Amino acid sequence: MTANSKDGDLRERARRVIPNGMYGHESTARLPEGYPQFFASGEGARIRDVDGAEYIDWMCAYGPNLLGYGQPDVLAAVEAQQRRGDTLTGPGPVMVELAEAMVDMVSHADWAMFCKNGGDATSMAMVTARAHRGRRKILVGTGAYHGASPWNTPVKVGVTEEDRAHLIQFEEGDLDSLADAARRAGDDFAGLFVTPYRMRTFMDQTEPDAEFARGARRICDEAGALLIVDDVRSGLRVARDCSWETVGVRPDLSCWGKVIGNGQPISALLGADIAREAAGKIFVTGSFWFSAAPMAGALETLRIVRETDCLERLTAIGEALRAGLAAQSEAFGFGLRQTGPAALPMVLFEDDPDFRLGYAWCAAALRAGAYLSPYHNMFSNAAMTEADVTRTLEATGAAFEELRRTRESLLPPPQLAPRA
Amino acid sequence: MTANSKDGDLRERARRVIPNGMYGHESTARLPEGYPQFFASGEGARIRDVDGAEYIDWMCAYGPNLLGYGQPDVLAAVEAQQRRGDTLTGPGPVMVELAEAMVDMVSHADWAMFCKNGGDATSMAMVTARAHRGRRKILVGTGAYHGASPWNTPVKVGVTEEDRAHLIQFEEGDLDSLADAARRAGDDFAGLFVTPYRMRTFMDQTEPDAEFARGARRICDEAGALLIVDDVRSGLRVARDCSWETVGVRPDLSCWGKVIGNGQPISALLGADIAREAAGKIFVTGSFWFSAAPMAGALETLRIVRETDCLERLTAIGEALRAGLAAQSEAFGFGLRQTGPAALPMVLFEDDPDFRLGYAWCAAALRAGAYLSPYHNMFSNAAMTEADVTRTLEATGAAFEELRRTRESLLPPPQLAPRA
After folding, report:
1. Mutate which: A94, A96, A262, A277, vs B, most B CBs within 10 A
2. Gyration radius (Cα) of chain B, Å
3. Cβ atoms B229, B253 nearer than 8 A
4. Residue B333 belongs to a domain with what CATH number?
5. What was the ipTM of the complex prediction?
6. Is residue A377 a part of any domain in this protein?
7. CB contact under 8 A, B57 and A232
8. What is the tens place of the pLDDT at every residue in A186-227?
9. Which chain A residue has the Cα nearest residue B27?
10. H-run or E-run covering A339
11. Which residue of B has its CA nearest to A36?
12. CATH number for the domain harbouring residue B263
């Protein structure tokens, strides 16, 4: 995809005017060779690269595509609001309507604040937790991703020790480790961040764990600290509510983003009444936080989530893919570990410590028209059909076939050399 | 605007589901009574509130409205891209085209990185400056606004001392103060943030100052620190280039936002080659940073800026307003201080230490159809016509008239009591 192609030409131009030609989570730097960097269009479940190849897209823009790219009702709501007014000198009525809709939908929430990046919501949650009782210590899972600001970025270049001075780490899902972290925080314990389940790159995922969730709630209650669920990635794919509602535990704050506007730029911090005063004392803002068009898109997205079986559908699609891959891998003699909620599937190969099998398999599936990730959880969306799953399984079947032939000659992915 | 009105009803509903009913820079909490919080629509130079009142809007969404709300060419570019694909699994070709357009337009820039909030760009600049030579100290003007993250928010609630541990303040525009700050930073001096001129609320503005700019450049060069111009607010209203190009000084990094997509959610960090390697080493990202529709809007906005006399027009409009207000204030016996670039006018009253004159005058002008600010710099836009200036001056004339009658009975604005 790099030589004699439009993607290659664009990469070349990009290298001149963008550091490394690309940055952030949509960079293909860690993906197998052959993955296109630039896309011409997207519709429903599919994306088309700039050289005209079409893929069934299991990355869904790394989450935002919940209902299908360009979902007509959402797009119509966005366009209508854009024409009336988008970024104005004050918000539109849609801001109030959207806050009401989110508070209605999410059991623990009494109020909402909107922003742009998922990281805006997590940073606001941190500041709110500190403002709540004037405490400083924030507990975060080791390796858990909560954004890319100095305090939470996984890459520490350009970051000072002080940026992370009051963070205390614990092992995700481990109540003893969490209790120990809480003890270390002592009476300076402001807030605890959790993801609803473990969702890290290159690792098996878990599922929401009732015992851990109840323990986390109890530890926060005993300390008078705020419990924060970061639902930016998992929100609306696990539940029509905060993801921990599935295990009966309600946080004080939850962070939302990605899907809530089906790709429109909007994120949110939701909170319970206990955190309302603190949230009202902090100063947070952004040039486009009050823009009405993304809010109109989010309001329509939430309506569809509420009134249709889209969540059940995208879970069923994820389960169909999982079942198909399990059968294929067994037939071809490979072991797969398929983990996490079905709507956010993670697929890793057994006996693949340097990921050469996964990388080769994904690269082959891509050539056959299925866009998968060898290291990041994937996402299903409600525009996917049984036919898309069938078509994906044809691609992965061809990929297993190829992998069976080539497995002995595979080398470790050079993209992962810096990691190893 | 609070009782028996749609705005009042929305505020009441908002208070239930949003802390304080509203937050951030578009909250009317510090504005005079009568300012509507919610707007139904905007077109060209005008906004209409939810009760149907129309205003000539001199706040321009606090900057983003450069060419007029809903400018047809920009809107068409945005809608066309939205239908092709917006937030996908990778960027579109428009990302490269936009980076090329910005690098072509801004003299000091060799590369660009896009993000959402102005504060994303300033935070990326800070991290890049620290990554450049592994130093930590960041120099910022006392009271200068560079965003609302923990490291730079003007309100310290929920913020720790460590969040600001490596900031060193200097007095804006004061070379001695800057040199002293640089000495204190010593060999840990990573970067210097400046706004192109002093632009603070409740204060007279300045203009870009060649001597200070040259001195800042020299101090950074001598220390091997990066010079960062925060052009988020002033960009494209002062020059078709970095605002300090008007005084012949080129920074290493510049931060852009607000206007570059005429209200579309996009911001940017631009840099010179000296900072390219550092910018390529940091990890920064956001769910919607690679969305194509705002980039298409920005590309079209930049084309219009480049190919039309819009910048000259909005400067002329600002000058016409300024001249009109000067004549009116003299005629009515009030002293006005009108400061800053004409396209970003600041209007403050002489002999008005508690702002009662300015607040009453703005409130009266609002009732007559002109939306002004008594504490924040305003903005002209290219959709404003001579007739809009005339109409605005009718409103401000009526406001001066009223102010002459009521001045003796005015009280200090209660909104400012927490400030005083």
Report:
1. A96
2. 22
3. yes
4. 3.90.1150.10
5. 0.98
6. yes
7. no
8. 999 999 999 999 999 999 999 999 999 999 999 999 999 999
9. A90
10. strand A336-339
11. B90
12. 3.40.640.10
